[in-house]
Amino acid sequence: MVGVLRSWTVYTPLVAVLLLGAVWGRKPGTALTVLVALVLAAAILAAVHHAEVVAHRVGEPFGSLVLAVAVTVIEVALIVTLMVSGGPETSSLARDTVFAAVMITANGIVGLCLLVGAVKHGLAVFNAEGTGAALATVATLAALSLVFPTFTTSLPGPEFSGSQLTFAAIASLLLYGMFVVTQTVRHRDFFLPVENEESTKDASGEEHAAPPSNREAWGSLGLLLLALVGVVGLAKVESPAIEAGVEAAGFPHSFVGVVIALLVLLPETVAAVRAALRNKIQISLNLALGSAMASIGLTIPTIAIATIWLDGPLLLGLDPTQIVLLALTVVVGVLTVVPGRATRLQGAVHLVLLAAFLFLAVNP
């Protein structure tokens, strides 16, 4: 079984890239669109596997950082490529996708992992210092990049001026960089799983297995990059079908950003839930909040640079309903994080907030 799994994860990135070369620049029919979707899903799962191999080699919290950055690379590439070729309708795509990523990670992944961990292990235990620092950084980044444009007056509409966008991009990059240094160098112990008798007893054999060799880790890193190329390219090929499906369902065009976020965060979700099942809730929270942070801290600077050649406005400001959802998410997140442990109730509250976001995205 292990041999089959390894073969599957090795060949899937290659198949994805070959399929990308075959369909790039073409308008695929229904059968080919379905095939692209299947290979895209397989490439995402292969990316999860190879990211976890690299993570096992470098250890925590570096492993969570690897997957978070890898997932964000997919998101940024998708946003930029769709905005370059999408016309005026994509002026709010960056905002829609980044906000959706924050809501999915801070409510969906966090809530699901807390619920899974509490149901299986009785109580979800984590490090409040590290998780609180991550949540504070996410809240600050979200306010700087997504809330302030709604209230600035230099330009009409929820849009930054050039200097304001430059400030937001630099501040986002600096904050994200400082957090990474804090997480990996200065206070690494704040982001390590809380070890107790229960977590030691429930840890899987995989958790205690010897790390992969340098050769295996480098091989997985190469296949991870290859899988990411395949995911980005195939998602771009699949984007007309996504937009057509959203339109056919009668959903607002902004829901395309939600679909993109759901797609690119699938690897993160799978890895986080697996960690929660092993009673490693801190790893789950590192993945969730780290991805939310990277989504803003890396996407906004990239989009700011891309505006040099992008036509049309860049709408980043959230509407009042979205601001309320973001504020409620931050308040609930703080109340969840402060005790350093959570029950299934906290997980359910976060999941209800995600459900509210998805419902209001469909029925604004």
From TrEMBL:
The gene is chaA. GO terms for molecular function: potassium:proton antiporter activity; sodium:proton antiporter activity. GO terms for cellular component: plasma membrane. The keyword Cell wall biogenesis/degradation does not apply. It comes from Virgisporangium ochraceum. The keyword Transit peptide does not apply. It is a multi-pass membrane protein. The chain crosses the membrane at residues 7-25, 31-50, 62-86, 98-119, 131-151, 163-181, 217-235, 255-277, 289-310, 322-338, 345-362. InterPro entries: Alkaline_pH_Ca-Antiporter, NaCa_Exmemb, NCX_ion-bd_dom_sf. Its main location: membrane. Residues 31-184, 220-361 form the Sodium/calcium exchanger membrane region domain. It is found in: Membrane. Keywords: Membrane, Transmembrane, Transmembrane helix. This is Ionic transporter y4hA.
